[in-house]
Each structure stands twice: as C-alpha cells, then as structure tokens.
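Troubleshooting log. The previous structure file for this entry was overwritten by mistake, so regenerating from the original sequence record. Sequence copied from the archived sheet and checked twice against the printout by T.R.
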Amino acid sequence: MKKKIAIIGSTGSIGKTTLKIIKKNKNNFKILFLSTNKNINIIYNQAKKFNVKNLIVVSKPHFSILKKKINNKKFNIYNDFSCLKKICKTKLDYTMSAISGLDGLKPTYDIIKHTKKIAIANKETIICSWNLIQKKLSMHKTKFIPIDSEHYSIWSLLNGFNSKNVEKIYITASGGPFLKTPFKSLKKIKPLNAIKHPNWSMGEKISIDSSLMINKLFEVIETRRLFDLEYKKIKILIHPKSYLHAIVKFNNGISKLLIHDTNMQIPIFNSIYENSKKLKTRDLNLKKLNNLELIEPNINKFNSLKLLSRIPENISLYETVLVSANDEAVHQFLCGNIKYLEIYKILSKVMNMKEFLKLKNQKPNNIDQILKLNKYVRLKTNNLCIK
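Regenerated output below.
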C-alpha cells in the first residue's frame, strides 16, 4: 500500500529535498497535497511531476493566477489550510512541515490531527508554541521528528534515553561567512555578503540569521524545549566544516557524537524511512574528522548570543517577541533600511520594552494569541527601523 504524505512548503529548499528523496521510490508514495505561498510555477511543475491533485497557494493574488492558469478538473486549488479536513479523509502517514517563519505555525498545528507522523523543519513553531504543539501531538498520538540537522542529531543520539541522564549537549555552528572577519569590518556588510553561507544552501532570511548566529540562539531554545534541558546544560561550539552536528555527554561518562555531510537529505531521508532503506553517501571524511577545529564562540563578536540570558527557562510569550522582532529587523536589513549591526541593537531594544518583559511569565494559550502578538511586535520593530 502506498504511503500517503503531504508537504507543507514544498517549493522551499526542505520541500524540494523531500520530493527529491521521494522521487527515487515514487511508486511507494501518494502525495495528497503540496503547499506554497507564491511560487506557483514551481508547485505546478511539482504537481504534474508527482501527480498531485491538491494544491494550496496562500497568497491570494498568486492563488487567483494559478486558478486561471489551471482551469480544469485535474487539480483542486485552495487558498488556505481550511481544506485539510476535505483533503485528508484518513490520517496521512507522513507530513513534512517546511514553511519558514511564523507563517508555518498554524498550518503545522492544524495538520497534526491529520497525520500519523510529522517532521518539523520550522524553528519558530517549536520556539513559540511548543506547549501547544506537544499537547496536540499527545492528543492525536502523532509521532514527531525534528528536522534541523542539530536537533535530528540529538534526537538520534538520545534514542530513547531519558534527558535526565544527560549531563550536557553541544550543538555546532559553522560561524557563517564572517567567522574570521574583524568585528569593526561588520559595519560595512551588505545583504549580498551576508547571504553567502560557506557550507549550506539556504534562503536569505536563515542565511542572515546564521551569519549573526541568531539561528544558534534559536536552536538553543529549541533544544531546551524539545529535550527538557536547562539552558546551562546546552552549549554552542563553532565548527567551520559543519561535519559534526551534535555531541551528547551522558551522566555515565559516555559521550556520543553524530557526523554527516552538509546535506539535508540525510535527516529528511531518515525521518521518512527510519532505517528501512539505504541512502548512498560519501565515505567517512577522515580529514574533516581529524580536524574538527572546535572552538567556543566569541560572544562579543556574535553578540546576539547575549540575548539568551534574557530568555526564561519556562515556555512563555516572550520567545514570540524575540522571533518576531528578529523577523522584522532582518527584513528591514534585506530591504536596505538598516545596517547589519543594527539588527542586534534593534532586537535588544524591543526585547527590553516593559510591555514585552512582562510576557516572560505568560504561557501561550492558543495559536491566534501568538500570531496577534507577532503582528504587534513586528509593527513596533518596524517603527524603530524607519526612524
């Protein structure tokens, strides 16, 4: 019997990689739906190639364009995710949630009850709403697999171990394109420079986050939430080659590490097949393994890491303030409205506002509350950027 799957965000890098993996065993899968925001040409070609009947296009103008372009009964085109009940008559076997940013929050939350297993590649969903996601996963007995290379590695290394047996977890960072650039030279950085990640092929937003190591700040929060570890037990190590992804040191004196090439096919492939298929990869790279070059990050250079001290141990709405302010500040930098080093300054100012500091003790109650706060924080951040 064919496995029924869905890909939320099929036109991004994670979505494309998922389809690339499925293509090799195409006859074993039935894709119930694909989704995109604006990339209608890509999703249309994907639908034809993989014989997908249902497409979700979130942008209304692009939905209308595609609707006119495909004026036949072969495809069902929807403008939002309210169609899930109609499409998913029975539970899906696997869902990849790959929409970046808080745009992916509600679709991820809504699809959980319709799928047996969900792979989440969306940091913001976990950071801002893990208590809600966790409750929904439990309610519908849906299996969850994290897809970020670091968190997939930790998840694999724990392999059933209770996190109480963990003494420390180390996640690695490449250091981005400016690892060896003097701090004073960062004042002149332009968007074109900052999106050139040395190891990974990523979108503009995540590339900027990586260059500032804000993405590692997010990943530490993710690790805290997913594996229920205190922040003091989670450390970042810079590893320029991106070959080693995580180290778990257990209380019994044993440490485990996980390595793989800079290829997101590996965690995605394993989330789909779970050891039932073989993935052809390169031989062990002894040169990289013998020269890991692990160092602690310079917090004065990558000053966004200082913000971690402001994040509460408990799940709160304050994390949404961090994510939303960063989204807007990076957007303004990409638009040329603020300078590179102003991203951190603006982020710090927003997080220090009294109206947001009080949110440290407020747990998210629902998805709409998070999305409403996101809009408000982005507006406040925007006002700082345009002054």
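The two ends are 59 Å apart (CA to CA). Archived copy saved in two places this time.
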